[in-house]
């Protein structure tokens, strides 16, 4: 029987934050899963590894699990910790071959924007390590997030990169199934993947990336139309991750063709130029908090949801910015909700005082002056939690999570879910575990860019991405850039020049 190894180190790395990502952060929550536990943990889940498991069964091959490690987005990964994880994966691969014979290839579950201290292209480094071990003839197929900063090196080292089609990412298992089918067909000699990349000098605004809505839905229709052409195996569009200061930061297109390198490159160039010619469609100027609220009030539908994307913990931001909370208080809003405010000190303070107590808090604004000043107020404690819960929304359905010591506070008319873990609200499950009914709120602010939409859009009156003060500003001209090797739109190449 065909044997395919699988593993991965998954991290979206922000070089805008100073806090390093360490082994302990990989071991937290979803953590580091080893050997057969990978199959037990991820079977039936909506992640790429879950798709690998289903795809192996469908395509009749044995999946040989090595190690899967993931950590919340954060700063640069400590080199020795990354080296240890990578080496353990390779050691487990060697052990699996000693015990069961050679594997026929590898399925890797990676992100696409991983940066290690001293290694700009972390994902490419993992792929290259597997290529060196497996040699030139055994295929490597890799799943990648929509927000990868892709390089020619990783394209050269892999046989196929399969990127997500959706944002929010509700198709992760589907892409894992697709990758499993590609590697099975490759090993059987039915196809010979040849991959090409077209890199774009483009920072793609987050509000313009939501794949269920214009303008992004047009991009995906184009991608899927191209995938129906003879000789095309798969097409990936990557919108990039601007908050990683690396040489290849930016958007890209990758095309995998069947035994035709020229077709792959010409098709990637065709789609890349189509995107570039429409570059202004993918640009959305930053919107202030008050302007976002005003647009919501003009629409007159509730709840008004503000995506506080400059403090998106899902991209590595600290999660303790205070501008939205302070604005809600200044406007004396009622039935308003903040998901989530990261503040371990206040969460523990609330747990020690107990439900029903009133406490004086200094909330948020502790990580960086850019994140704003702490909000000092009297707060009522409505609920506390150890943070454990189960996801039930479209993205991570079937997985458990932990927000760490947490509490539901009310400050005047503002409800604040205070947590310890820097994680965005992918769904409403954790809020519900505290007794918070999001649908009954009139105003909701989420520290997220778009992933929240998968669960929150059905209850939303209107949704507005706002650029409150925060480390992950979407005013791309303000991002630190010391390694970028080219001018990009809309920074040096401005919309007026376009």
Structure description:
The protein has helices spanning 23-27, 37-42, 48-59, 79-100, 122-134, 152-157, 172-187, 216-227, 261-277, 289-299, 323-330, 344-353, 429-433, 453-456; strands at residues 3-10, 32-34, 62-70, 105-109, 140-144, 160-163, 193-200, 232-238, 251-258, 304-308, 336-342, 358-363, 375-385, 388-390, 400-402, 406-411, 414-419, 443-446, 462-466. The chain has 498 residues and is α/β, with parallel strands linked by helices. The protein has two domains: 3-282, no CATH class; 289-473, no CATH class. The strands form four sheets. It has an eight-stranded mixed beta sheet. Helix 3 packs across helix 7 (172-187). The longest helix has 22 residues, at 79-100. The model has no long low-confidence stretch (mean pLDDT 96).
Q: Beta-sheet strand percentage?
A: 15-25%
Tell me the number of strands: 19
Radius of gyration (Å): 22 Å
- Portion of residues within helices: 25-40%
Note poorly predicted spans.
Answer: none
- The number of helical elements comes to 14
Counting helices, strands and paired strands, the structural category is alpha/beta
Overall mean pLDDT: 96
Total individual domains: 2
Question: What is the element layout, followed by pairings?
Answer:
Layout: E1 3-10, H1 23-27, E2 32-34, H2 37-42, H3 48-59, E3 62-70, H4 79-100, E4 105-109, H5 122-134, E5 140-144, H6 152-157, E6 160-163, H7 172-187, E7 193-200, H8 216-227, E8 232-238, E9 251-258, H9 261-277, H10 289-299, E10 304-308, H11 323-330, E11 336-342, H12 344-353, E12 358-363, E13 375-385, E14 388-390, E15 400-402, E16 406-411, E17 414-419, H13 429-433, E18 443-446, H14 453-456, E19 462-466
Helix pairs in contact: 3-7
